[in-house]
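Hi R.,

As promised on Friday, here is the backbone we talked about, encoded as structure tokens. Could you run it through your design pipeline when you get a chance and send me back a sequence?
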């Protein structure tokens, strides 16, 4: 019977939906795993992944990077060009819509045996997946809206994943505000880092990674301190939503109750104009300092680094005996076409030295770089490089010190 196979799905060149998908009249001849492979193929075509998010190499940098960043290959691959052609083919899109509609109807009428809970669950998941892609292809796809699902392994559980559902809208050439309506690679990299190693962001209570608070400790002392967390330039919210769900999973673990159903920590959105905030009178909740501030892919104009530093001087908590050291975590892509913007970080924030006796300033505490695969790349691997800065209060390194 015609239809896509796992082997065919892995081939470099993908055929069009009208050839790859099995005929709708034969859907009842295919198993749920076989139909799932066809749906995965359609997701690959019509809901592309964010480029440059698969981390392959991390390097700790003990000083400024060379002025010329690691070479970034940006020319589209043969596969990407073919996928773009398929997405823009009205006939193929129409065929995919009709096929998904038939599949949803088929799954809705199917009645797996009552005792086969696993098959029933797989069928429900496939139904939801097909409906999601259908919405992208039909209703919202005409406007270029893309539904995305991000899933990160939980550091607190082998079974629970951190899943975030978002929608990206197309960029408007004359509207710079639409930049925030897209999920950029830097946000994906930071969300992945948070889920992978929340302790490095200060998000982990000692009792949540294997150790249990001592029974001799009073409950109010054993409970984690309330953290104030802020994301600048949040865009579609991937980083904040990932952090919120991670904190919720941690709370469930610390509750020592399998039935814990406490609310997911609330995420609030507020307007913060970087250029005006430093000279304005802040209102709640921006009137108190934060323990952790996050920023992903937010430097795309030369003046942004200066504005952000002025904001941090009011928003990042100063060192004290009662609080852990506050940090600003920043990830930016190193684009050859935006070298001036990338370089502005180190022009505005000096590197730190060990001496803490001098007057404190905002300094770069550490810097790492990541090499990420850009996605499907055809004959050669395309790469995107990111710089990851941790910025906090300290003594700056200067030639005159």
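Update: got your reply. Pasting your designed sequence below so it's all in one thread:
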């Amino acid at each position: 019977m015609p239809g896509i196979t796992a082997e065919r799905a892995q081939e470099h060149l993908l055929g069009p939906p009208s050839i790859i998908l099995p005929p709708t009249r034969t859907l009842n001849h295919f198993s749920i795993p076989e139909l799932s492979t066809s749906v995965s193929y359609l997701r690959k075509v019509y809901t592309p992944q964010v480029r440059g998010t698969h981390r392959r190499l991390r390097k700790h940098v003990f000083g400024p990077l060379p002025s010329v960043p690691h070479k970034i290959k940006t020319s589209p691959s043969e596969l990407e060009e073919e996928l773009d052609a398929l997405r823009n083919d009205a006939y193929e899109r129409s065929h995919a819509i009709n096929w998904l509609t038939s599949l949803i109807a088929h799954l809705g009428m199917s009645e797996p045996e009552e005792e086969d809970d696993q098959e029933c669950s797989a069928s429900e998941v496939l139904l939801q997946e097909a409906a999601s892609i259908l919405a992208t292809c039909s209703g919202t796809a005409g406007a270029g809206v893309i539904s995305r699902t991000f899933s990160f392994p939980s550091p607190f559980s082998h079974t629970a994943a951190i899943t975030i559902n978002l929608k990206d809208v197309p960029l408007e050439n004359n509207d710079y505000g639409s930049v925030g309506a897209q999920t950029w690679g830097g946000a994906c990299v930071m969300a992945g880092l948070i889920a992978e190693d929340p302790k490095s962001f200060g998000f982990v209570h000692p009792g949540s990674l294997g150790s249990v608070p001592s029974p001799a400790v009073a409950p109010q002392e054993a409970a984690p301190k309330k953290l104030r967390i802020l994301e600048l330039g949040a865009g579609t919210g991937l980083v904040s939503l990932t952090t919120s769900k991670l904190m919720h999973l941690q709370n469930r673990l610390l509750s020592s109750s399998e039935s814990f159903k406490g609310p997911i920590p609330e995420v609030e959105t507020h307007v913060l104009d970087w250029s005006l905030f430093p000279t304005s009178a802040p209102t709640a909740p921006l009137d108190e300092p934060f323990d952790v501030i996050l920023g992903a892919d937010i430097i795309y104009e030369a003046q942004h680094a200066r504005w952000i530093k002025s904001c941090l001087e009011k928003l990042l908590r100063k060192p004290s005996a009662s609080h852990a050291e506050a940090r600003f975590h920043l990830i930016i892509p190193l684009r050859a076409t935006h070298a001036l913007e990338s370089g502005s970080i180190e022009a505005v924030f000096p590197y730190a030295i060990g001496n803490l006796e001098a007057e404190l300033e905002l300094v770069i505490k550490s810097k790492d770089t990541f090499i990420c695969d850009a996605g499907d790349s055809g004959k050669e691997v395309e790469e995107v490089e990111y710089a990851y800065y941790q910025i906090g209060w300290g003594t700056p390194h200067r030639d005159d010190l």
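One thing I noticed while checking it: Residues 1-13, 64-76, 206-224 have pLDDT under 50 and may be disordered.

Thanks again,
M.
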